[in-house]
Amino acid sequence: MTTLPLLPLADEPARTATGRELTPEQREAVERRDGPLFVHAGAGTGKTSVLVERFARAVLEDGVAVEQMLAITFTEKAAAELRARIRERFLAAGEREHARAAESAWISTIHGFCSRLLRAHALTVGIDPEYRVLDEHDAERLAAEAFEAALEDFLGRPGDRQRIGLAAAYGPDRLERALRSVHDRARGRGEPEPRLAQLTRP
């Protein structure tokens, strides 16, 4: 893999089809095709411009189909900006068909990419195609409901004074924190849900 620094230098600029200047470093990042390329760059170094031009040239010069390209960003806002600028780049080159294709191109966050992939193959993997990703508020609410149900089940088993004594000594809040801590650590180590269920059986 080639590692390439992206520096905001201004000597010997080349220009993109939209009139933006490319520094020698940016131009190399756009044109390099001899294998995997890692570009490390800070703020203000033209990362988005390089991505736009590299994407566009792969389509226009190398013959890669728009739907075969994948661009991953950190935020939805960045993905929207990248998509808009790629579309603008194609329009500047007179490529209206490619510009239309960019509207549905694989340009998103990693979560958006995975979600789109799952929806496209929902029946194959056995999930509801209308699923939605939980936001933080809903996830917290469901976790609280699950703990409450588990505590009721825990206390509702007859003939176990140790269980009742444990609940009385620690209280529901401390028990919840302890249970969530164990659950989070187990999941962090990759313990599957069935294994967690076995650990909690009496």
Task: Break the fold down into its secondary structure elements and pairings.
Blueprint: E1 2-5, E2 14-15, E3 21-22, H1 24-31, E4 37-40, H2 47-60, E5 70-73, H3 76-92, H4 96-102, E6 106-109, H5 110-120, H6 122-125, H7 136-156, H8 161-188, H9 193-199
Helix pairs in contact: 1-2, 2-3, 3-4, 7-8
Provide the descriptors you would attach to this structure in a database record:
two-stranded parallel sheet, 202 residues, Rossmann fold, two-stranded antiparallel sheet, 6 strands, mainly alpha
Task: Describe the fold and architecture.
With 202 residues, the chain is mainly α. Helices cover 58% and strands 10% of the residues. The chain is built from nine helices and six strands, in the order βββαβαβααβααααα. It has helices at residues 24-31, 47-60, 76-92, 96-102, 110-120, 122-125, 136-156, 161-188, 193-199; strands at residues 2-5, 14-15, 21-22, 37-40, 70-73, 106-109. Helix 1 (24-31) packs parallel to helix 2 (47-60), helix 3 packs antiparallel against helix 4 (96-102) and helix 7 (136-156) runs antiparallel to helix 8.
